Amino acid sequence: MKNIGFALCGSFCTFNDVFAEIEFLKEEGYNIIPIMSENSYNLDTRFGKASDWQNLFIEITGNPIVHTIPQAEPIGPKKLLDALIIAPCTGNTLAKLANGITDTCVTLAAKAHLRNERPLIIAPSTNDALSNAAKNIGALLNYKNIYFVPFGQDSFKGKPNSMVANFQLIRYTLEAALEGKQLQPVVVSPK
Length: 191
What we know:
191 residues; seven-stranded mixed β-sheet; 8 helices
């Protein structure tokens, strides 16, 4: 059984779609290790209460949630994961990953995991993918062992710089990444 870390960042509007994919991966037999950024773990928003998302994550995976830096640190030295998925991955987290900043449990989990040269899968969800975050996406596309869930513009009229992953492609991106391949095409319709 493969151990897959699944990290949520604070693009709360995507959580329903993301949790559907977490359920699918669990049903496919993966052992899912839940990870939540400090914001996704603690903030109540118009998209739901933090405690409800926590309970759902635990219910689906059957595992406790990693939500602090000390909890994330052993991921690397103990080689806990076969792959790590960050979905949704916000522009803030993209920037930190691209610049080696590890001041959150998600970015530290990614750093710790990458030291083992195992796949990190990123499913972006950011309103500035075609502006400020573009350089970070470009940098990460060139890094070894980093793979992207195909993504596209989600509201080109209302938010012309916004892009979001097609979360239904997480499962296929994971399969490809475990074989060392980037699922193509990278830029697609987000739904």
